[in-house]
Amino acid sequence: MFKISGEMTIYQAAGLMAELLAALEDCGGVLQIDLAEVTEFDSAGLQVLMLARRGALARGVELRLFAPSPAVVEVFGLLNVAAYFAGPTDVIAST
Amino acid sequence: MDLQAALQTFIAESRELLADMERALLGIEHGAAHGDAVNAIFRAAHTIKGSAGLFGLDAVVAFTHAVESVLDRVRDGQLGIGDELVVLLLSCCDHLSERVEAIAAGRLQDDEPPAGAALLLQLGRYLEPQAGAEARAEPVVLDGDAADHWHLSLRFGPDVLRKGMDPLSFIRYLGTLGRIVGIATLADALPADPAAMDPEACYLGFEIAFASAADKGAIERVFELVRDDLSLRMLAPRSRVADYLALIQELPEQPGRLGEMLVACGSVTERELGAALALQGSEDAAPLGRILVDSQAVPSAVVEAALTKQKLAGTERPRADGRSIRVDADRLDQLITLVGELIIAGAGTELLARRQQDGELIEAASRLAGLVQEVRDSALRLRMVKIGATFGKFQRAVHDMARELGKEVVLDIRGEDTELDKAVVEKIGDPLLHLVRNAIDHGIESAAQRLQAGKPVRGRVGLNAFHESGSVVIEVSDYGGGLRRERILAKAVECGLVEADAVLGDAEVFELIFEPGFSTADQVTRLSGRGVGMDVVKRNIAALRGSVGIASRAGEGTTVRVRLPLTLAIIDGFLVKVGESIFVVPLDMIDECIEFSTEPGHDCCNLRGEVLPLVGLRRFFEIEAAPARRESVVVVRHNGRRVGLVVDALLGEFQTVIKPLSKVFDQVSAISGSTILGNGAVALILDVGAMLQGLPGPARVHSP
Known about the structure:
The complex is a heterodimer. By secondary structure, chain A is α/β, with parallel strands linked by helices. Chain A has one domain: 2-Layer Sandwich (Transcription Regulator spoIIAA). Chain A is 49% helix and 25% strand. Chain A has 4 helices and 3 strands; from the N terminus they run βαβαβαα. A 3-stranded parallel sheet of chain A has the order 1-2-3, with helices on both faces. In chain A, helix 2 links the parallel strand 2 (30-41) and strand 3. The longest helix of chain A is centred in the middle third of the chain and has 17 residues, at 43-59. The relative contact order of chain A is 0.20. In chain B, helix 1 crosses helix 15 (388-405) and helix 9 (255-264) packs across helix 11. Chain B is elongated, with a radius of gyration of 34 Å. Chain B has 5 domains: 3-133, Four Helix Bundle (Hemerythrin (Met), subunit A), CATH 1.20.120.160; 150-315, no CATH class; 329-382; 385-565, Histidine kinase-like ATPase, C-terminal domain (Heat Shock Protein 90), CATH 3.30.565.10; 570-693, SH3 type barrels, CATH 2.30.30. The two termini of chain B are 55 Å apart. Chain B has a 5-stranded mixed sheet with strand order 6-8-9-11-10. In chain B, strands 19-12-13-21-20 form a 5-stranded mixed sheet. Chain B has a 5-stranded mixed sheet with strand order 14-17-18-16-15.
């Protein structure tokens, strides 16, 4: 489980991406990202998640976004991107 | 770049663009292909807006923006461009011209004057969603109804996030203006290799179906802050499916993927898109479903290349001609003046060489003279401009005048490629305009009269220019009722211009309309008929060393013929001597030179059976010197009239630079300027037209 807390914006994007890519390498097939404690979520944050999904697809890793916080849900709803993350798995579990 | 210099460029460019815009608008009125014309108008407005933005001319930006928005709707096919809109856009064009002139005069930050506000209001009416009522919107809807909402394609630039702006906030804000019906987020621009991604760059694009009553401008304003970092495309509600296809083609992503996105956000249905693609008949016509499946993964390199291409395209501006440069007219004038001095100095050298009788020196001097002449010709050619631009301006004038007088008139322009000196072109505009005005007001009959005479209701005014023996002839013809000889004569008698029992030829009668205060119009219209004008026209043309003549046939029309010198700077002259004074007669006026022979006391002679009036220059200029033993006569022709000038000696041709006379000699008529000869002597240039004016009993040659 990869847990992201607090802001998930352009300020954290670079660091988060590095951590996520590393996590993808050694997650062993399934990577769960816990979004329950994300307080702020912007386009940069979204892009990090999108990239993570790409990386996961490329590596054959199953990516699960877990328990998105209201901030994340709002953006997913606004941009209609939930489907993007809806892979073959039950990606977005609600709390 | 120096801001002031840049501003001058902006002003010059705007003037040209506005002229283009006007021409295109008038073209529409005359039934030219709408598409090109609308594009030209749009481009003009768009470029002015862009440049005005650079200088912070906010009022101009706002105004052109409104014009552009209306044109956008025309381009989208939502608005038909009818008479009313053309007139409105012409007014906008005028308004912008005024603004540009105000800027040229240094008033940069004027607020929008009331006239502009009124125009904005009118433009606004065309931007209302339901403006279609009066504007013949013609959306061709494939398969019934196309989407009843705006479609927005957003592609954010990579720097948006770094600049502290979030695409999300714009989309949220957009939501306050209406309802986001559907949205598809495109992350195709994300690099395939995660390591290549810049987490702080923005890669997002959106296709949005947006239901709103807001106008295009309002929607665009949502994205005002990211204007530079956003590629925004909009399709208006009820756009044709073909427009969506065009949009797909324009966007960087692969067509299939975009099609999917458009379907996803609900702007088009899959069936519509499929049908439209099939209609196009290209390889795109593959079943949409397959395209969509095939193109799940888009190579990001392609996308990036497309994005870069797009950005470049955004910054490119259509350049009329990269091979021409702008030169300050004053510098050109200075060059011409110097070339003039060079000619004089060259002539001096040649004269000296002859006097020295040094063969080599003479040869060198004559080679120099040849080169100087070439330099002169090239320098003069620099100042030559086509008269087409001046003629083009009349389109608008004719349009306005005809409208005001309730006549239908087309302007038939020929010879617009004829070149003449810029200084002449600039000064001939007003007199010509007056002639055109007269042609429409007095020449072209009213619709009822035309019908009665069996002519088409739509009248024709012709403007024609061509070169003829060293001068330029401009003809203004109307194919109207012709001058009414009796009316003119009666009026002339009434004004005391001619005696009641005078017997005059047609040409002489017609010439009367150039007399000051002469008008036969029954009604004084706003345009003409107040009896000021033709005399001023004649005077202005004479000031350009030109002449004007008139020919007319009842029921067939009137042609006014203006003859102008090619240039004002240099003339080919013929030197004559009277006593110790040397005069220059413009060569193009000279018919021939003959030996002087007449009965004493007569001031005319017999030229092959025709009476040739003679003017003795000695007497005319009161030169006190004994007559030469053998005098000569120079036969000059002016305005269809031949006169002999009696002189002591003929000195031959001489190319001469005209030096205007100083103000002190303003009162001197019959002399139009001076020149300096090779030996340093001053020669006076004869103004033949002015000399002949005082002559009674004109003898005419046949053709005017």
